[in-house]
Amino acid sequence: MAEDAVFTKQGALKGARQSIFLGISAVADGIVFGLLANHAGLDIYASVLMSTLLLSGTAQFLAVSLWSQPLPTANIVLTTLAMNSRNIVLGASLRVFFSRLPRLKTYLSAFFVFDETWALSTREITLGERDSAFLVGCGLVLLFAWVGGTALGQIFGSTVVNPRQLGLDFVFTAVFTALLVGFWKGRSSLLPLAVAGVVSGIASQFLPYNLHILAGGAAGSLTGTLAHYLRTRQAEEFLKT
Amino acid sequence: MALVNYFTRATGLWLTRRSSPPPFLEGLLQNLPGPIIISVIVPVLVKGGVAESMAALVTAFAMFRGKNLAIATAAGVTAVLIFRFLI
Known about the structure:
Chain A is mostly helical. Chain A has 13 helices and no strands. The termini of chain B are far apart.
């Protein structure tokens, strides 16, 4: 079992080297998050702790956008689960790295499974890499970059006076619009996104606690999955005839 | 929140030690992020105005071309300031 599970310092260093550019961008994103967390009323300790424990741009931007008193805890936890449930699929696809690794190393590595580390690791696996510490190397660089950026943003944040005058009230929307582009997979994305947009737009008029996000997400995801099933079934029947 | 977040990351690796999940569930999870993200944006734009919607288009265009989150965000924020000034 142990001989084909590789986990070395060299692998981690290789991952770290390949993550430098993503790390620079993570510092910039961290600064944006630190600024927004500051405006939402989180202090530097709370936001740095959040960045360290979560290391998740999407979940953290969302949590800060929902931040109010009393804190909508259940909603934040549920949306975190909904937003990041894709990590389950990402992790499950890293079978080559983790199916044979000892349990402790696997579940420590799990802390670093997210879009960027997954993308780099998947490419590395297709190139023949078998050292799963690669993913941890990627993750550590991004962790330090993201936490460092968060602290910088918090420090600059306290000097910023009027967020609207600087357009900072639009940063949330801009970040999420940019993230959305990353999930655009061509024309098949149009229908689920349209359904999600319409459902969330209508639901936001009467659902409390920003539950329209979950409503739109569920409707869009179901539409996308059903459409995919119908398409593949049609293709199968077409091939049969 | 941190626990739930870690749970999403660990479950996938736990699954690599098991058999594959049912394909319909896998499909649902895979199709979730885009719809979730647009569900965050649309109500904000509905409540906002023309300037915000146009700036969102600028942001999307910048992301399509540059593939850089920080630059696309900066472009969007600059655009919303310009559109608010003009409209």
